[in-house]
């Protein structure tokens, strides 16, 4: 059977295709096309004509990628240069040179041999490390991929043998060997799913799409005859831009990043794709971004340098004293010692007529003679110890993760001893302190809160209660122990939690009793990954008996349709697994599946749900045509999907931050706003992440009018495009009807509270840098023992955005007043035993890092045991780390697991990267 017949079927209208990125204009009237052929946009790729790329002017590098520091030619001179950058080695080189002269008081071997040994050991270490890098390069460059060979067929070809212009075929779960222009895929609608974890640290899948002109080419024979010319930008490190066009069959088609597959990204959930190599080897964007890590030197090394300088100064001093004394004795005393017969000796070292020359020569001889005052083995001894330490760290069984089958890897041996000098730790939250494995925990539907279970905050509180109880119990007289309560035997499984009294949180007539489903035992583990919900009112399809059934159905439908996820078949079960742009979306999809709204299939134009029909009690398939997907962004703080059902009704389903959704509600859509807002507040206090859900029904005439405006905005090319799209989205995302909200929990990593307790007892100060909102961050702080109930907390908050210079000035003054007031309180209570903590929200942090405020902010922050910074961007993480490092002068350690943590990891004295759910940058 030909491969084309096995392609994933999915009808599609290209005029209605709105994927997760930009929309392609139909021709090459792209605003940036005018740049092609000019400096910076001069690359020309001739598809399937690689022989033309072997000579100028279109000769480009091979696809071989090297990460080694040296090669056979450069190793000796370059490694020698690196060794003699050390002051001690340079001194002994000078001493060795002098030792071969007549000035040497002993054999040259005694100086030359140790120097050669020390330099040789260091160079051998460099060679071994570079050899390992070479073997790793060899392994990568020797990977194979299907590529067109000379006779027009596709066969295995090593990565290093690929050239610009080669047409290749990449199969599912394979990495792209070069930067490719996407030509076609196993999907009939010309899409593919790509994982870019190695590039940007994001684990979510991204959708790429090919040009309509190449969509139909899906056979090896067709692609082997493909002739086209790509004119595009020159190599650059920007991962998110691409400017170019494809000239094919006398037509020119504009290209955008959606048609480019980058090296080191991975093909997922797509059987195969065809692509043509555009950038190879060192020209690929991945390699262009692979800059060297900053060179970090430990305090021991820096102190060792200072000691060497001190010893050299002392050596210089005693040699100088020796030389002066020698010249003095030679001129005034040794002439009288006739038995020396100095007048008959022409030795310049003892020439009475030239005492100054003799003094200089004695000075040089003294430098050699006393040279062992500087230990020649100092550097090599320390390096050998560091290498042994690194080997022990890499083989430490206690730091092996059985889940990922990965062990610790010390990327450098220069910072081992620095771990014992750390005084300040700066940590990411998501994926570092928490697992970044979201669980659906609670929801509010039509003003009624559902779900109850012991959460991480409650578990932390119970642990603290047990600790306090144990302390109290130990103080009771032993004679009364028979009457005392054994608090230490209180386990998490014995603690019960009940729902908080929430006005409007229950339907009339519902009473809390011992049979209430919201009372849950703590010891239960979540049977289903991503779903830890306990409430018999909704579970096991009991939701069909709810009085507000329509709202319940619409709520579950929003969860099942408003997302960017795709289903993945599970093994030996009717349950599906999902992959989406965020763990929250996966949790919502798993939850909707448990509530009998299974997201079953997706194409570019259709989503299919398996829904439980309350009237018949049977599961039915319902198809929803995707009309538009309005993406989530940090500025919009919401996403929407517009769909049409079989009956022709058009729905807009929306989810987002509660403040954004509430502002867009219709007057008749606010029925549940007050109760939902209260539930959301309680969920946030519990440390949960929350989103609000809403919908609206759109009339056909209104949709057609809006669609023309949106389509025009989408096909606009230029800097105003995003603004026009946002304005168009605002036009349709209004008059919403609130359905409710959902809460997901990010579970703590194992042992986090105990670890933080021990670090705090050791006197280390901890900064938590998170992108979460303040309420969530504070409650995570309590759950992981960063914050305690008896701890004095300073909250720096600003309520409004600054739009004018006057408002900016007022905000600075407001924040400075808060800082000064907090500092006064700190000074007054500094003698108390309880530590201080500080919480800074996102708006206050932006102002705090500006000139005129940051010094006062840091003065307060560094005196707190714990600092929590909310709504922090990656750039702010790096800036905070740099400021803390420079302001305190203390050793800092940064730890994180995502690409957004790379900046602060590089800024800190010690950086620790975790292979986590956010990626492995």
UniProtKB/TrEMBL annotation:
Calcium recorded as keyword? no
Cofactor(s) for this protein? Mg(2+)
Residue span, P-type ATPase N-terminal domain: 47-110
Instruction: Identify which residues the record assigns to the active site.
Output: 428
User: Where does this protein reside within or beyond the cell?
Assistant: Membrane
| TM stretches of this protein | 87-105, 307-330, 360-382
The record's annotation in InterPro entries points to: ATPase_P-typ_P_site, P-type_ATPase_IV, P-type_ATPase_N, P_typ_ATPase_HD_dom
Q: Which family does it belong to?
A: Belongs to the cation transport ATPase (P-type) (TC 3.A.3) family. Type IV subfamily.
**What protein name is recorded for this chain?**
Phospholipid-transporting ATPase
